Amino acid sequence: MSLLKLLEAICSKISSYTLLLMAAITFADVFGRVVFNSPLGFAYELVAILLAVSFYSGLYHVNKKRKHIQIDLLEKYFRGPLGTFLNWFCYIIEVIFFGALVVMMYEQTMLSKDFGEVFMFLGIEKWKVLMFIFGLAVIALISLIEAFPEVVSFNKKESLS
């Protein structure tokens, strides 16, 4: 098993478990609010953290398979060399912007550490959570870099026929 396959498996598990945990926390919060008139005080912060973790851990698979949301209305017009050029151009833009996002995540993590920010209800230092999310963003960037676009055609279905 390669390191990239291991990272994909780990990110997949993290994404799945965080979604389940978010659902359980939300259920417990609503149940406590309705039945006992006492919601969980930390639910909002914890669900927000888990949502970010789930998002960034899920990006590994999305980037690797190049399954981003895309508009394909003009796809039939961009075949052949033009389609290949546009596909590579979009890929390079994605790598640049996602690389910038990773750098900004690191800067935000360091700023949070320097200022000593702490979550209000959880009491956890924010930079520790941000560092974990930064690590997931780096892993997602690696998967994006390894997912080169197809050279043959802009549309995968067209290239198979």
TrEMBL record:
This is TRAP transporter small permease protein. It is found in: Cell inner membrane. The chain crosses the membrane at residues 14-36, 42-62, 82-106, 129-148. The keyword Glycoprotein does not apply. Its main location: membrane. Belongs to the TRAP transporter small permease family. One of its GO terms (biological process) is C4-dicarboxylate transport. It comes from Alteromonas lipolytica.
